[in-house]
Design a protein that fits this description.
The protein is mainly alpha-helical. It has seven helices and two strands, in the order H-H-H-H-H-E-E-H-H. It folds into two domains: 41 residues; 76 residues, no CATH class. The protein has a two-stranded antiparallel sheet with strand order 1-2. The longest helix is centred in the middle third of the chain and has 31 residues.
């Protein structure tokens, strides 16, 4: 399934670079193929369907929270607003890089590092059992 997702991603990049009008007509369908493959790779039969659905819902909610926090942080650093409400003095821009893709990636890495600091450490016995 992961291999299929990778090939779907490669196909999207090729179609986008070779024939932009076809890529525009396909819209979201090629990326959906990749996401579908990754979702289907989750083993539902191993732990039961209920547990797989629960896991999927938890992951979706976590992603929504992360995207909201990341977006609010980028908006705060770039424009001084959060969800459109002025928080910092007007005209104060902490960093314009936050609005750029590289700034978003940097902030995502910093949030991931912060989450790793906060997350409780595992004892290591679980790793040995696996």
């Amino acid at each position: 399934m992961v291999v299929s997702a990778v090939f779907a991603g490669i196909a999207q990049m090729i179609v986008k670079s070779v024939c932009g009008s076809t890529a525009a007509a396909l819209g979201i369908y090629l990326p959906l193929i990749a996401v579908n493959c990754l979702l289907l790779a989750r083993p539902a039969d191993e732990n039961g369907v209920g547990r797989a659905v629960s896991d999927g819902v938890k992951q979706a909610l976590g992603f929504i929270c992360l995207a909201t926090i990341l977006g609010a942080l980028r908006e705060l650093l770039d424009a001084g607003t959060v969800f459109g409400a002025q928080v910092l003095p007007k005209g104060l821009q902490l960093t314009a890089m936050a609005a750029l893709p590289a700034g978003g990636l940097l902030l995502l890495g910093l949030l991931a590092g912060l989450a790793n600091l906060i997350k409780p450490k595992r004892s290591g016995k679980e790793d040995e059992a696996a």
